[in-house]
Amino acid sequence: MRSHMKFAVPVVVAALALSACGTRGEEPGAGSTGGDGAKKTVKIGVIAPLSGDLSALGKGIQHSVELAVQQANAANAIPGWEIKVEAVDDEGKADVGKNGATKLAADDDVAGVVGNLNSSVSQQTQPVFAAANIVQVSPANTGPSLTRGADGNTRPYKTFFRTCTTDITQGAFAAKFLLDQGIKKVATIHDKKTYGQGLVQYFTEAFKAGGGEVVVAQTINPDESNYAPVVSKVAPAKPEAVYYGGEYPQAGPLSQQMKAAGLNVPLMGGDGIYDPTFIQLAGATSEGDFATSVGEPTDATEAGKKFLAEYEAAKFAEPSAAYGGYSYDAANAIIEGLKVALKDASDVKSARQAIVDAVGQVSFAGVTGQVAFDEFGDTKVKVISGYKVEGGKWTFVKSENLG
Amino acid sequence: MTDLLQQLVNGLTLGSLYALIAVGYTVVYGIVQLINFAHGEVFMIGAFGALATWTLLFQGTTALWVLPIMILGAVVASVTVAVVMERIAYRPLRGAPRLAPLITAIGISVALQEAVRLFYPGAKSKIPFPQIDVVTGPALSFAGVTVQRAAVFTVGALLMSAALLWWFVNHTRTGHGMQAVSEDKDTARLMGVNVDRIIVIAFALGAFLAAIAGVAQGLLNANVDFRMGFLAGLKAFTAAVLGGIGNIQGAVVGGLVLGVAEALAVGFIPGQFGGSAWKDVWAFALLIIVLVFRPQGILGARVVDRA
Known about the structure:
Largest sheet of chain A: 7 strands, mixed
Number of helices of chain A: 13
CATH topology of the largest domain in chain A: Rossmann fold
Number of helices of chain B: 11
Helix content of chain A: 40-55%
Number of domains of chain B: 1
CATH architecture of the largest domain in chain A: 3-Layer(aba) Sandwich
Number of strands of chain B: 4
Oligomer: heterodimer
Radius of gyration of chain B: 19 Å
Order of helices and strands of chain B: HHHHEEEHHHHEHHH
Strand order of the largest sheet of chain A: 7-6-8-9-10-13-14
Structural class of chain A: alpha/beta
Radius of gyration of chain A: 23 Å
Helix content of chain B: over 70%
Order of helices and strands of chain A: HEHEHEHEHEHEHEHEHEHEHHHEEEE
CATH superfamily of the largest domain in chain A: Response regulator
Shape of chain A: elongated
Number of strands of chain A: 14
Strand order of the largest sheet of chain B: 1-4
Strand content of chain A: 15-25%
């Protein structure tokens, strides 16, 4: 054993020394190939669930950012710089996301990041990017505390922005949506994650304020797939609808099992269930279920139609999904910021503060409306739309600006 | 009262699933004293086998007659995996220290999960399971208690499987051979029992029941995914220990008790510690209490005492 140790120590030291040399050697090549007409590299990170249950949404985010970057490069948006996309998988999990964020933050060429999908993951990645002064623009985080802190009035991280609106507006819209249909008694169920819990909380506040009654409040365990005991707990209270805070991998089976157990009332959820997979999992009985989503349907506006056509033409392997437009706008917000901040910069790392400042000041017409941020880093556009399952598809019902 | 009956129905349904899987743990343990932690994955493979059979042969059909063929597909998939697993992973370790096959089992479990995730089309996320007529659809209602059709199938499947298994173990030559091997392997071998064959049969029997459980869970939850075996396997193992590991009746009783305990915890424990968030805590608390006062499990472990 002893003799092994004697060998091991020098070997480890040598390996460390070699690897240290290696990283030091790479930097000039990758970072500052300035002069001689060669372009310098700046990277935009994507951090989203690229595998697992939520990968349909994550892949849409990744490709939409890739589309924005391809177009910017083709138009030579930032003279002297070549933009690259660096995609990292967070699996929709906070710990994996934190590791991914650390990896991106350690790359000196990363100027900004689009992500995450889940509010609970962003909670963990925010401080990592903030410490490195890297601007983070989320296309999908609707948890209000991410920009407004626990007390609702203090911005926790100056580096965090989002192109989608928050659950406060989404919950309020959903409450009004149900009340307008004469539904006064609802049951709420959530999955105990930041997103689901928040959504149910804001929905409940708005629903009670509007004269409705929450007859029973329950939670489910997102790792399980049998919700019969919870459904039995909810059914005797005779709700006229069930409001679910969470995402489609659980919401689909929940809707199916609710109706198979004889609770034939609509299930309503937020943008987390607004995905075709929900209808696949929920089956034929999902007819009449509701969802809200941020913004107007992408194909309802001219800019949205143009984006979808360009996305189609780029032939990505997966569709743009629910957050495609928001991701495209998020990437463009970063690119707009880079145009200003990288003009006279020698390298990315020293320009990061300028990038954060510049992104905070952007204002341009995006796919989802005018892209501009308020003093908290929230988007100024607060449009929410309601959808209904009809004929096995999500169909648009109405939208409203609650700004 | 209706609430109580309703949660009992839910509990018995869930418990039947646990029981079907738990039998596989117990049969194998009774014969070779091995906790086959990959058994949850055998259950998962069964569900995917049924799904694959349906997708390949009957895509779009939901008539009842396809169900037996789906079950057959599930059984073939599960039994094949279990038998191959025994042959390549456990048999070479027959004489090895106890820990070696245990770690191997965990390794196989992870390998099978990842294999399905990587190679089954679309298995990276949940896949909808076909809804077969008669056994799924609108719930039945008895005096205010709603019973899912798939629940009737699940409980029925447990009753039939348990009866068949009981008959097999007590009334066939092979069954007697199994009892002999579980009592004393060496003597059984001297009496002319082919021990290797009996062990393979034990694995196959467990896989058979797990396959049926896989189909039942698919029908109940209307979806399957590659991780479904992990939690189900853990719960079923708990059920087997609760009832008395190595004891087939014990596995059935343990499964039902565990399922009912979970459902009642959701239904009747009020406040912060109730609801589905805490049901696993109560289920495992029950296990601990039973093991403190009755370490051999509810019906008693059938571990042979060699003096």
